[in-house]
Design goal:
The complex is a heterodimer of chains A (312) and B (425). Chain A has 9 helices and 13 strands. The two termini of chain A are 36 Å apart. Chain A folds into 2 domains: 191 residues, HUPs (Rossmann fold), CATH 3.40.50.620; 84 residues, no CATH class. In chain A, the strands form 3 sheets. Chain A has a 6-stranded mixed β-sheet, sandwiched between helices. The mean pLDDT of chain A is 90. Chain B has 3 domains: 210 residues, P-loop containing nucleotide triphosphate hydrolases (Rossmann fold); 90 residues, Beta Barrel (Elongation Factor Tu (Ef-tu), domain 3), CATH 2.40.30; 101 residues, Translation factors (Elongation Factor Tu (Ef-tu), domain 3), CATH 2.40.30.10. In chain B, the strands form 4 sheets. A 6-stranded mixed β-sheet of chain B has the order 2-3-1-4-5-6, with helices on both faces. Chain B has a 6-stranded antiparallel beta barrel with strand order 7-8-14-11-10-15. The N terminus of chain B is likely disordered. The chains are: A alpha/beta (312), B alpha+beta (425). The interface between A and B is large, with 74 and 80 residues. Bound molecules: guanosine-5'-triphosphate and magnesium ion. The site of guanosine-5'-triphosphate (GTP) has 20 residues of chain B, from helix 1.
């Protein structure tokens, strides 16, 4: 162990870290069967580090769980498994494909994005394991509906968020109580911005999946967005074929957020180190989701709608 | 490149009456500090145009819910973030409607500074008084009054001076203005941006600082730093089943320093049982610390094996409070279901819970006249002084001294809802 000099004040990152650790410990102290949603993405990797700081040398008082759409980048899935193994913590994976087999998820068409259907699989997993709290990596700066959500957000037995009737949340006295069947979504990094996340990754020297860094990739331009094409999955299947007439371009890009392949777009970038990413983040003129989420652009209230239906 | 991490953080909120321009002020502040990114602006522009507006409605930045956008009002708190290079800000935009007062209280409880807005055409209204009273009750250290919509009164100095005098008079009555706290009053227009980030040229008669200058220089520090050490135990770490034999006897008390500071070697007492020991080590992840300060989340190891669990409080032995089974506090009722003096509630204080019954409602406050009224029960948004009898002892301080150990919430066990916010006197 290393010994650190005495602090007289907390920097903003220290403060955000201390707040997040406090929230994680409140979940552990108040809930009987919580779970940490872990995707392999940058926000959830920060939460893993925070959980280490909160609970080591003990084990995490919750398992990790990933809701896999089956359409995730292979680099991220490999990283997810590797990280869980390094930490020696239990990783549960539940897949949207299983919900499709059960008939609880029905796609409108074969190429419909499975992203929003994660809610169904998540609710099924919550019921299967009897989880009373799901810890997630959502941040308030990501999206305008998220900007409204409590740190401990109550969901009814259908997983629904009622934005017009949220529990008051005072001081740091979080109320994570729920009855059987209901549950709490806890967001320890609610108050972090994209910049805070990158600065924390830099400070803590966190490893990330390679696709967060600049790399060459085949893409097409579709309705103003950069859409990755011919993406190989871990299963060997290749998805996102270019449509007829689309010109495939090989570009240097990186991802600001990694999610379901069908709804996450990369940005043009030559940032191949964390410090270069921090610099780019400081000067960007486009928000994280604005640049990269194809699913939020459908309507003004898509995130709010999804949250009302049980989304993270 | 090395990144600087030592910038300070200020949490502030906007409050005041309906339509006084709280959301617009935040929108404008972010716009003028170039904190709104292009795509967000495009989206706001599109939504504004759809509504038939000619200029971008900046309140759309924080009014993010469908229902808010439809009605042009704020329903719940929105949190926004920006940074100026010298400082990082967390902003909470609170609703003005009386119906949503509980959401205003939610925002106030974590704010270090409140901007209270007043519409220059309307002057001090009931809701201005209510929010000021709540800001005072919740103990927000810094108050700034923004007399907004100056463009609608021809930027008239006399109008400003009159409202300012009215407000300061009221502030003195409720004790909001007291020795050591200076209430700053700024004339501005959230719509045009005058005196917000830029001075503009319409109000040369005003010599004071702009809103942003006030925010940039407001002290962000916590007075809790100088208070006695309080460490509510959140979680106990006992990895005895681990493969690592060294950890067999490990017993770490995990929590956040709510006030004061602690160093290795300090003599401590664990309450309510009163066991004493010394701090053997302070850890944060794999770092060994020599000391920890207010708001730091750490793990404490003690010299002696002491039976301690969540809900206990570690304090310095020479600063130990007396555990109490009765508390008296100002309570803001937050629920549509009125308070019932017959029922048992749960009180959560730090990491500790106790069943509680109302002993007596001493009085209710009329926020308009500040009169103390007799009350049998409490309805939503009422503020009253209440005594509670407790099943379990709590380790409390007065809220005016220590926000963390002076605050509690009231929970309704049947719904699990948070129904009251309390501050110990
Ligand atoms: N002329 C003028 N209009 C303003 C100014 N500030 C706000 N407004 C207008 O006042 C109306 C209400 O503004 P909001 O910002 O939504 O008010 P609010 O205080 O956030 O309202 P609630 O949150 O619902 O209580 C909008 O039409 C604004 O455009 C100002 O300085 N001058
Ligand atoms: Mg508003």
């Amino acid at each position: 162990m290393m010994t650190t000099a005495n602090k007289t004040t907390l920097s903003h990152l220290d403060w955000l870290e201390a707040e997040a650790i406090h929230i994680l410990r409140e979940v552990a102290g108040q809930c009987s069967n919580p779970v940490l949603l872990f995707s392999g993405g940058k926000d959830s990797l920060c939460i893993l580090r925070l959980a280490e700081k909160a609970f080591r040398p003990g084990r995490f008082p919750f398992p990790l769980m990933h809701i896999d759409t089956g359409h995730n980048y292979k680099e991220v899935i490999e990283f997810r498994d590797q990280r869980a193994a390094e930490l020696g913590e239990r990783l549960i994976v539940r897949s949207v494909e299983d919900s499709m087999k059960r008939g609880t998820v029905v796609l409108k068409s074969e190429d419909e994005s499975r992203n929003k259907h994660q809610s169904v699989t998540l609710l099924e997993a919550i019921e299967e394991f009897g989880f009373d709290c799901c810890i997630g990596g959502a941040r308030r700066d990501e999206e305008k509906a998220r900007a409204k959500e409590r740190i401990m957000s109550f969901r009814d037995e259908f997983g629904q968020w009622d934005p017009k009737n949220q529990r008051p949340e005072l001081w740091n006295l979080y109320n994570a109580r729920s009855h059987k069947g209901e549950n709490i979504r806890a967001f320890p990094i609610s108050n972090w911005t994209e910049m805070d996340v990158w600065q924390y990754i830099e400070r803590e020297k966190l490893a990330l999946p390679s696709i967060y860094f600049a790399h060459q990739r085949d893409v097409v331009m579709r309705a103003g967005s950069i859409v990755p094409v011919n993406v190989p999955l871990a299963s060997g299947e290749v998805i996102n074929q270019p449509k007829t007439g689309e010109e495939v371009i090989n570009m240097q890009v990186r991802f600001r957020t990694v999610g379901d392949i069908t709804c996450t777009a990369p940005v043009i970038s030559d940032a191949d180190t964390i410090s270069k990413i921090v610099l780019e983040t400081a000067t960007t003129t486009i928000t994280e989701r604005g640049a990269t989420r194809l699913d939020d652009q459908t309507s003004d209230a898509s995130m709010e709608q999804r949250k009302k239906e049980g989304y993270f | 490149m090395t990144t600087q991490h030592n910038d300070s953080l200020l949490r502030f909120m906007t409050c005041g009456s309906v339509d006084d321009g709280k959301s617009t002020l935040i929108g404008r502040l972010l716009f003028d500090t170039k904190s709104i990114l292009a795509d967000t602006l495009t989206q706001m522009d599109r939504t504004s145009k759809k509504r038939g507006l000619e200029v971008v409605d900046l309140s759309l930045l924080t009014d993010g819910l469908q229902a808010e956008r439809e009605q042009g009002i704020t329903i719940d708190v929105a949190y926004r973030y920006f940074s100026t290079g010298t400082r990082k800000y967390i902003i909470a935009d609170a609703p003005g409607h009386e119906q949503y007062t509980r959401n205003m209280v939610t925002a106030a409880s974590t704010a270090n500074l409140a901007i209270i807005l007043i519409d220059a055409r309307k002057g001090v209204l009931t809701q201005t008084r209510r929010h000021s009273f709540l800001a005072h009750l919740v103990g927000i250290p810094h108050i700034v009054v923004a007399i907004n919509k100056m463009d609608l009164v021809d930027f008239d100095q006399a109008t400003f001076e009159k409202i300012k005098a009215d407000y300061l008079n009221f502030a003195e009555q409720i004790g909001l203005q007291r020795a050591g706290r200076d209430i700053q009053v700024v004339p501005l227009s959230a719509l045009t941006g005058d005196m917000l980030v830029d001075r503009g040229d319409a109000m040369d008669w005003y010599q004071g600082p702009t809103m942003l200058e006030i925010l940039e220089s407001a002290p962000a520090g916590h007075s809790e730093q100088n208070e006695p050490f309080r460490f509510p135990v959140q979680f106990v770490c006992r990895p005895h089943a681990s493969d690592d034999k060294d950890l067999h006897d490990f017993r770490g008390f995990m929590g956040r320093v709510e006030s004061g500071k602690i160093a290795v070697g300090d003599a401590v007492t664990v309450l309510p049982n009163g066991y004493t020991s010394k701090v053997k080590a302070i850890q944060l992840g794999d770092e060994q610390l020599q000391s920890a300060i207010t708001e730091q989340s750490v793990t404490l190891l003690l010299e002696d094996e002491i039976d301690t669990s969540r809900g206990d409080m570690i304090v310095k032995s020479d600063q130990a409070p007396e555990p109490v089974k009765q508390i008296s506090g100002m309570v803001c009722w937050l629920s549509e279901t009125p308070l019932s003096t017959a029922r048992t509630y749960i009180i959560r204080h730090t990491t500790r819970e106790s069943k509680a019954k109302v002993g007596a409602i001493e009085y209710k406050v009329d926020v308009n006249t500040l009169e103390q009224l007799e009350a049998q029960g409490l309805a939503m948004n009422d503020i009253a002084k209440i005594n509670f009898k407790l099943a379990q002892p709590l380790m409390v301080d007065s809220y005016s001294k220590n926000r963390a150990t002076g605050a509690f919430i009231v929970i309704d066990e049947s719904t699990n809802n948070t129904v009251g916010a309390g501050m110990i006197i």
